[in-house]
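Narrative of accomplishments. A recurring question from our advisory board has been how the design workflow behaves on a single, concrete structure rather than in aggregate. To address it, we present the structure tokens for one chain from the evaluation set, followed by the sequence designed for it. No filtering or post-editing was applied between the two.
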């Protein structure tokens, strides 16, 4: 076991960031490295399986730090995203500096490397101040990262923000290398729909620029998936490690059982496993799985449109409706919907998603195109219908439908008849065969790259070796 290397991993406090970063932590611990995983106090207490993880990975330790927000703050991007960002800067940053310095003074095992979330650049700056190597891990897709890198130039060249309103949203955006002819105004990252001086828009642009101060970049993607885009990003960093899809890499290195248990242990909500029994009773590839991740919130009206669209499609469905997570809907709506759905569908408030996607009854995935969900869909070989709402989801869905051709993009529409038609097309339409063929190829490359000798497997080994040398 390596006695020197000690990595501190700091995710942004959201499910889609914690999960891939905890997967990386497990892979580093599996290789014998020491890892301190630093969550905010709020999320630390919600990771209820921490002790089991530390028992399984004895070199994995959990610590927590204040996010600077009052206990009753909703901590959602929709309600106070700018407050989350400013509290992290004003409260978490100085505490982090103190904590990191203390590790140097008091611990037998000082931190030798900080791996910070790609939107937590302050941690890279603090690490550099203290003479510690800082690596940035952007948990989004490379295509979204590249669009962010090009955004300032696009604005200088005349791109008017926000996009939307009376704009022709199907107009192509030119000037982003390797995206010409694909990227429309509609597909630009979610912040482009906000005013240019909006704090969240500023934050993402500034954080992207700040990432280049890091000693290296880690991405949860794989070379075969985003090669043309990666060739533009690589020169911006001393080193780039593409180590995705992390869930497949975990499975290949730790085996199915341990990787699935890690997946559920990195969840901020307890999954309702009763849906697996329901799936067991459904015909092969018949079910459409519907989930919009941990951040997207639906209005009452949108919930009803989806419900009608799903029922009218005539396909059985498993739907994650995030009632308990403070969505705009009330508990009664869930009960009413479940009663109206009868045998045809199954509603849960959080599902064991990776297990669901791998279940033989599931034939399609109606998703918000969050990056983890997109990769999990690819790894399971499940074709997708995309209903993106924010952040990188808008560009990911375009790549799913137009570049990789493994799904359909329902962007900016939410009416029952479109939903019904999309589901029928994906599940039984003439185009399904072609989508399935592309998906099988992509799923195959995802599995090959995480095996011995594959690009992501090789890059993980290189990362471990480089960290050991620090
Ligand atoms: N997820 C889950 N159960 C659910 C819904 C989501 O385990 O019912 C997991 C999913 O497997 C994924 C993560 O939550 O790993 C969501 O990340 P993603 O990047 O897709 O979306 P975000 O939540 O960041 O919008």
């Amino acid at each position: 076991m390596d006695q020197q290397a000690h990595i501190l991993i700091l995710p942004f406090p959201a499910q889609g960031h914690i999960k891939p970063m905890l997967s990386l932590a497990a892979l580093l611990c599996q290789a014998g490295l020491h890892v301190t995983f630093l969550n905010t106090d709020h999320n630390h207490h919600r990771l209820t399986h921490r002790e089991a993880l530390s028992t399984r990975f004895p070199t994995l330790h959990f610590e927590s730090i204040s996010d600077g927000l009052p206990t009753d703050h909703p901590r959602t991007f929709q309600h106070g995203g700018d407050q989350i960002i400013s509290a992290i800067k004003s409260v978490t940053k100085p505490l982090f500096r103190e904590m990191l310095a203390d590790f140097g003074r008091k611990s037998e095992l000082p931190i030798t490397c900080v791996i910070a979330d790609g939107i937590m650049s302050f941690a890279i700056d603090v690490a550099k101040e203290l003479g510690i190597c800082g690596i940035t891990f952007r948990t989004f897709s490379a295509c979204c990262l590249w669009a962010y890198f090009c955004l300032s130039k696009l604005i200088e060249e005349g791109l008017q923000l926000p996009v939307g309103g009376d704009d022709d949203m199907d107009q192509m955006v030119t000037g982003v290398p390797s995206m010409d002819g694909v990227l429309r105004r509609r597909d630009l990252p979610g912040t482009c729909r906000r005013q240019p001086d909006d704090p969240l828009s500023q934050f993402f642009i500034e954080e992207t620029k700040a990432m280049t101060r890091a000693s290296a970049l880690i991405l949860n993607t794989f070379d075969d998936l985003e090669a043309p885009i990666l060739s533009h990003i690589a020169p911006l960093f001393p080193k780039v490690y593409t180590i995705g899809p992390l869930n497949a890499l975990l499975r290949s290195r730790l085996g199915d059982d341990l990787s699935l248990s890690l997946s559920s242990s990195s969840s901020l909500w307890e999954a309702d496993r009763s849906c697996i029994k329901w799936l067991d009773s459904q015909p092969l590839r018949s079910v459409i799985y519907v989930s919009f991740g941990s951040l997207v919130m639906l209005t009452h009206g949108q919930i009803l449109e989806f419900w009608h669209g799903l029922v009218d499609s005539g396909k059985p469905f498993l739907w994650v409706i995030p009632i308990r997570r403070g969505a705009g809907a009330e508990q009664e709506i869930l009960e009413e919907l479940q009663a109206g759905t009868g045998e045809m569908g199954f509603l849960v408030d959080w599902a064991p998603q990776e297990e669901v996607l791998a279940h033989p009854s599931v034939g399609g995935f109606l998703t918000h195109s969050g990056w983890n969900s997109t990769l999990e869909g690819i790894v399971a070989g499940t074709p997708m219908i995309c209903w993106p709402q924010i952040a990188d989801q808008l560009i990911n869905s375009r790549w799913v439908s137009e570049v990789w051709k493994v799904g359909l993009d329902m962007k900016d529409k939410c009416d029952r008849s479109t939903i019904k038609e999309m589901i029928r097309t994906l599940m039984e339409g003439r185009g399904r065969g072609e989508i399935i063929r592309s998906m099988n190829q992509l799923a195959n490359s995802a599995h090959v790259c995480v095996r011995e000798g594959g690009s992501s497997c090789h890059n993980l080994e290189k990362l471990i070796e480089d960290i050991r040398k620090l």
